[in-house]
Amino acid sequence: MEAHGSAADSIVVAQAKTTGPRQAADEIARQLATTELAMVTVFVSPFYDPEIFIAELSQRLPDTPIFGCTTAGELTPGGWDEDSVVAMGFNAADFMIAARPLFELSTFRVDRGRSVCTELQQEFAQHTEDCDLGHESFGLMFIDGMCQREETLMSAIYASLGDIPIVGGSAGDGLRFEKSWVFHRGKAYTDAAVLILVRTRLPFRLFKCDHFEPTSTKMVVTEADIERRIVKEINAEPAALEYSRAVGLSDSKLELFSFAAHPLLVRVGGSYYARSIQRTNPDGSLQFFCAIDEGMVLTVARERDPVEATSDLLEEISEELGDISVFIGFECVLRRLDVEQHQLSREMSELYRRNKVVGFQTYGEQYRSMHVNQTLTGVAIGKRTATPR
Questions:
Q1: 201 neighbors 90 (Cβ within 8 angstroms)
Q2: What is the pTM for the complete model shown?
Q3: What value does the CA radius of gyration of the chain take, rounded to a whole number of Å?
């Protein structure tokens, strides 16, 4: 495969679809080797051994910081894909970055997140004192999708970074939900996250897209295991039975595709956000992808056309920013499953291809202070209007 973009482009996109991690690392490195890069972000199917892949790629690009994670699917220059690797090289002429890993998320405390953010901002400020990349910054966050600590982490980061907005995704493991990895400086980690601050002169805009709207049907979580994101009772009834009744399904038919088609919404600050279900447990409780709490009001959602909703947003952003280098996208795997159920995969994949949406499919999305589900979040990067000095 050939890289999408030239060495003069702000972001060069590479893709590999080979039989092994070393061959994939060779292919990605070959496509990115002609550009002086501030960093590479790489999103890797669990088809490849993540530890071998990231070690091999780092050896081939020894002077370039590399970050990323494993996926539940890839958003490539050709649209939706699986069993592949997609990477983005950020041209050093247009971007400056600083990054920090956060380890041992299972014992993560908010004060630790604040400390890391303070260190990162100090480094960021030092690096940008003499650069001419302007004052516009955003953050990228990649989190182990099995850690169940996204809300705590995002709350700490949001409170500590001031006006720097954050967007990102939770690493995936296909549809296995067993183990996911994030990458930092040549190694793969579980129970970890990576926060990257990015400064650029290029125009950009963060975005969030979903295709659901609230109905009048409400439910209340009456018993829950908050730490494990398990809802045991809804409306004082077994959770799976009450959920099935509310959305009009037989509880015997509850599966990942059912949850993809029938998410529940919570209202935060006047807006609705999806709270997606991962599975039904043997005791009839429901395992969620996002944080839940006793007393939380859940609203049954009604679907809109996902392709139309996404197309409208991408068109709006393109009109605002002008020519787009790339839409860096983080898309929930349940969103993909829902689109597949409606037999709209070809249309959505083609929409992404036309609009240069590149990234990965997730176990959850980060958007500003929120950890959300069943959305497409990301950042659109415009093109430079003048030759950089």
A1: no
A2: 0.90
A3: 20
Written as six digits, the tokens of 125 are 């400020």
Separation between Cα atoms, residue 171 and residue 180, nearest integer Å: 6
Beta bridge partners, 95, equal 200
Q: What is the pLDDT of residues 228-260, one digit of tens each?
A: 999 999 999 999 999 999 998 876 678 888 898
DSSP 3-state of 332 = strand
Q: How many CA atoms, within 13 angstroms, populate the side-chain half-sphere of residue 38?
A: 21
* Residue 106 burial class via C-beta count within 10 angstroms: exposed 0-12, middle 13-18, buried 19 and up: exposed
Name residues whose C-beta falls within 8 Å of residue 155's C-beta, 6 or more positions apart in sequence: 110, 369
Burial class (CB in 10 A: 0-12, 13-18, 19+), 293: exposed
Task: Tell me the pLDDT tens digit for each residue of 312-337.
Answer: 999 999 999 999 999 999 999 999 99
Three-state DSSP class for residue 9: coil
Which uninterrupted H or E stretch holds 67? Answer: strand 66-70
CB under 8 Å to 163, separation ≥6 — which residues?
none
Which H/E stretch holds residue 84? none
**Which residues neighbour 278 within 8 Å (Cβ) at sequence distance 6 or greater?**
177, 256, 259, 287, 288, 289
Tokens 């009834």 identify what position?
Answer: 237
What is the 3-state secondary structure of 353-365? HHHCEEEEEECCE
